[in-house]
Amino acid sequence: MANPILVSGAAGRVGAVGRAITELLLKQGKAVRAMVRTEDEHAQALRALGAEVVVGNLLDLDSMHGVIAGCESMYFGMSVSDAYLARDGQCGGGGEASRREGVHQYVTDDALTDEHYRNYPEPAAQAAVACRAGAELVRSPGGVRAADSDSGFGQRVQSDQAPFGEGKTSPVAVEDVARVIAALLANPQPHIGKIYHLTGPQSENMHFFAQEYSKALGRTITFQDIPVEPWRDELLKRGLPVHLVNHLAAMGDRRRAGRYDRMSDDVRTLTGQGPLSVQEFVRKNAAAFTAAAKTKEA
Hints:
Blueprint: E1 5-7, H1 17-27, E2 32-36, H2 41-49, E3 52-55, H3 61-68, E4 73-76, H4 82-86, H5 96-100, E5 105-109, H6 123-132, E6 135-139, E7 159-162, H7 174-186, E8 195-197, H8 206-217, E9 222-225, H9 228-237, H10 242-256, H11 266-271, H12 278-284, H13 286-297
Parallel strand pairs: 1-2, 1-4, 2-3, 4-5, 5-6, 6-8, 7-9
Helix pairs in contact: 1-7, 8-12, 9-10
């Protein structure tokens, strides 16, 4: 039997990249070990799909040895967590467990961009770090992914307010990210040490994307730029963790500075299929956006 491919965050609820990767690999007939944090209905659903489900904690090195044992390839993804950020070098795929257990290929989705590589600001240096780790590094835009439900973009009935200025970004759908990662895990050897930048088909400002949401949903949605401090204070009042608010505020700074204005054809090159546009994604998931809007109205 082939060694299983380990997928962390397989039961993830925000974005659900891990779950999508698991489903794609299983459809290809690959053996998949799906790591979850708790034994619940999400774990049962993964078993029903045919995955081997294991419970693990990225912050518990001992538990990760058992999770990783027998795997030669893995997908490593983690949420924006203060605990994970503080111990990034020890978290499962990036730490001693993967090296000691003989993982030869690992793919990580680095949406934190500049924050994650704060010590290696140049692309060449980042590539060297990835190559040294024997990793394929898949990077999504540092901005909001089109599929991230907690971004707030476009989910209000009439308008969205954020401190993004006129900065451009190129959102990429989770399903496109998952398709690329599944392709790399299915055939990792040609990609060892390479860095891929995943973007959607358009790099535009938030006014443009508000219009795309309007066209897809059949109702007018506008974008209003606001100062970062009152926006940050409002997020804290809503109970969002400080580390997450700081991360979002940093993203706002970078977006206004044009740091997320980038385009790549890597999704099409690696999968043979172009990425979804924001309008296509919203139209495809219109029911979810309409339900979110009704919830906000209530």
